[in-house]
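Task: sequence in, structure out. Protein: DUF4806 domain-containing protein.
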Amino acid sequence: MAQLKTWTVVRFLSENSVEAVPTYWIKFSEKKCYWSPYKSPQKLTKAISNQEAPSDNWDTYSVEFFQGSGNYESYEVAVEKCEAAKYESDLNSDIDNIALQNNEQRKRTSFPPKRYLISSSDEERSESDLQRSPSPLKKKRITVISNKMITPPLPPTPSSSSLFLGKDRSSSSTNTADCVVPDDVPLSLPQYNDNLEQNKTVVTTSRTCESCNSILNEVKAIKAVVLKIYHKQCITDQLQKQLSDDVNNGIKMMEKCNNPSINTKSFNLFDQVELPANTQDMLNQWELFLEITENYTSSVTQLSAIGGNTLYDFIKRLLSKIMKDSVAQNFNMSGRNNKNNFKETKTFKLLLDAAKTHRSVHTEKDVEIAVGSWLRRAKERHEQALKSIRIS
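Result:
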């Protein structure tokens, strides 16, 4: 079943104006009402009569309800009740009687509520837009004590939050129930008194100065807080910059330590020990050199950078820099046939780590096969070298 369209008469507290609005524009739990942002009276009336659905850009305003107010199924009836509500708080009163009693009051000039003047950019707004519904008539408020006019109390001094952050549109109006005199009651006003007027001026000026001093003190306090926040922010920025510089320096140091090309510049293996070894004693000195952890690590880094097209090519280039064939022919990978076991030497472990650093895909078995193949050919290479020397 489709929802029944109804209208409700409400009073907008911020402008003290009365309107007939679609019932579902009202948020009853919060006592607030949506209001269309249209600046054209025709579009606004059409939105209300057609019950246009509120959107996200619509503002809400605080409202109050009238005694006897209900939900009217006809927009025309709601408009009549709206006119009655401008003069009576009870909407059950006779509309015709109210219109006759207040015929003269309706002729007074009125101005549109602020809700109709949200934006000043619409230059096409006609003067008829300003002649909206008349604002409710206000009764005279006069305080009389012993036939002397007393200046009504000044409004409360606005707080700093209302000055800088703006005040809520929906704040309720102040209570003015001191002494209300209807228009039809004659009053005997006191005669003009120069001394009284001077006293009123002094009191008003004094109160105004006190208000200004109070506001000035609050502004100074806010300024002091802002300066403290600014100083703390400056200190935070300096600490953040210093921390960023420290982190960058740490990263550069780590990159320098992990870069093999930088380490090899400060460490040259061939300046530390005599290579390639052409005797067993020289090879033993090389083995003792590798026992030192720092020497071993630096040697792995430098030798892994030599490179080679294949694993055998890589092993051949390394071993040719470490030992001569005359020494290599005395080794094999098992220690059989009265030869030394090369697998038990520190040099083999060095070759294994250098190969894995060069290419991580190399396994220990691959390195062992390549080294064994090079050692088996050491005797043949040595004899060919001797033969070449004899011929020359």
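The chain is about 50% helix and 10% strand.
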